[in-house]
């Protein structure tokens, strides 16, 4: 086998083995705060770095990051939590001046495939409230169990008649 082909095959295998993939990016209102959920598929145990940013007026503004430094305008209002392949960005006191294209960027240490990036356009008047919305994203297994048990619940009602 040609050494160049062997190296290319090995790099392809490494890329598949180490990749982080963003599955979904969504936004909702939680009281007066914006919440942006970055749901990703974890294909490695390597440490994960992230960056949330907003692009408005053709300029990128870093909101919260472990990759680069966040801008002062957002640093005091932003918080990020991580839970089971889901990053939550919370931006307090969200107003129409915070509207724009929000970006979630992920990178795993020693990942040769590059950063994973996903965008969402956020307009305050078009955002939904987070209550039921987040339940579906975070607790998919609970929802699936509920849906699968509905026929059983109906059967119990029929038998008791």
TrEMBL record:
<feature type="signal peptide">
    <location>
        <begin position="1"/>
        <end position="19"/>
    </location>
</feature>
<dbReference type="InterPro" id="IPR013783">
    <property type="entry name" value="Ig-like_fold"/>
</dbReference>
<dbReference type="GO" id="GO:0007229">
    <property type="term" value="P:integrin-mediated signaling pathway"/>
</dbReference>
<dbReference type="GO" id="GO:0051894">
    <property type="term" value="P:positive regulation of focal adhesion assembly"/>
</dbReference>
<dbReference type="GO" id="GO:0009897">
    <property type="term" value="C:external side of plasma membrane"/>
</dbReference>
<dbReference type="GO" id="GO:0045121">
    <property type="term" value="C:membrane raft"/>
</dbReference>
<keyword id="KW-0393">Immunoglobulin domain</keyword>
<dbReference type="GO" id="GO:0005178">
    <property type="term" value="F:integrin binding"/>
</dbReference>
<dbReference type="GO" id="GO:0005096">
    <property type="term" value="F:GTPase activator activity"/>
</dbReference>
<dbReference type="GO" id="GO:0030334">
    <property type="term" value="P:regulation of cell migration"/>
</dbReference>
<dbReference type="GO" id="GO:0007155">
    <property type="term" value="P:cell adhesion"/>
</dbReference>
<dbReference type="InterPro" id="IPR013106">
    <property type="entry name" value="Ig_V-set"/>
</dbReference>
<dbReference type="InterPro" id="IPR033292">
    <property type="entry name" value="THY1"/>
</dbReference>
<dbReference type="InterPro" id="IPR007110">
    <property type="entry name" value="Ig-like_dom"/>
</dbReference>
<keyword id="KW-1003">Cell membrane</keyword>
<feature type="domain" description="Ig-like">
    <location>
        <begin position="3"/>
        <end position="121"/>
    </location>
</feature>
<keyword id="KW-0873">Pyrrolidone carboxylic acid</keyword>
<keyword id="KW-0325">Glycoprotein</keyword>
<dbReference type="GO" id="GO:0030425">
    <property type="term" value="C:dendrite"/>
</dbReference>
<dbReference type="InterPro" id="IPR036179">
    <property type="entry name" value="Ig-like_dom_sf"/>
</dbReference>
<keyword id="KW-1015">Disulfide bond</keyword>
<comment type="function">
    <text>May play a role in cell-cell or cell-ligand interactions during synaptogenesis and other events in the brain.</text>
</comment>
<dbReference type="Pfam" id="PF07686">
    <property type="entry name" value="V-set"/>
</dbReference>
<protein>
    <recommendedName>
        <fullName>Thy-1 membrane glycoprotein</fullName>
    </recommendedName>
</protein>
<dbReference type="GO" id="GO:0043209">
    <property type="term" value="C:myelin sheath"/>
</dbReference>
<keyword id="KW-0449">Lipoprotein</keyword>
<dbReference type="GO" id="GO:0005925">
    <property type="term" value="C:focal adhesion"/>
</dbReference>
<keyword id="KW-0472">Membrane</keyword>
<keyword id="KW-0732">Signal</keyword>
<keyword id="KW-0336">GPI-anchor</keyword>
């Amino acid at each position: 086998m040609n050494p160049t082909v062997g190296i290319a095959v090995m790099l392809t295998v490494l890329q598949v083995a180490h990749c982080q993939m963003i599955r979904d990016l969504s936004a909702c209102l939680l009281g007066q705060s914006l919440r942006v959920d970055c749901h990703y598929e974890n294909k490695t145990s390597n440490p994960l770095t992230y960056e949330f940013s907003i692009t408005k007026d053709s300029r990128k503004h870093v909101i919260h990051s472990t990759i680069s430094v966040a801008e002062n305008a957002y640093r005091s209002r932003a918080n990020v939590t991580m839970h089971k392949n889901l990053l939550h960005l919370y931006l307090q006191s969200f107003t129409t001046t915070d509207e724009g294209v929000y970006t979630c960027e992920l990178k795993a240490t020693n990942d040769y495939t590059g950063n994973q990036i996903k965008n969402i356009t956020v307009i305050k008047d078009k955002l939904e409230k987070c209550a039921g919305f987040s339940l579906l994203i975070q607790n998919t297994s609970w929802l699936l169990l509920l849906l699968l048990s509905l026929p059983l619940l109906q059967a119990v009602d029929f038998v008791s008649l």
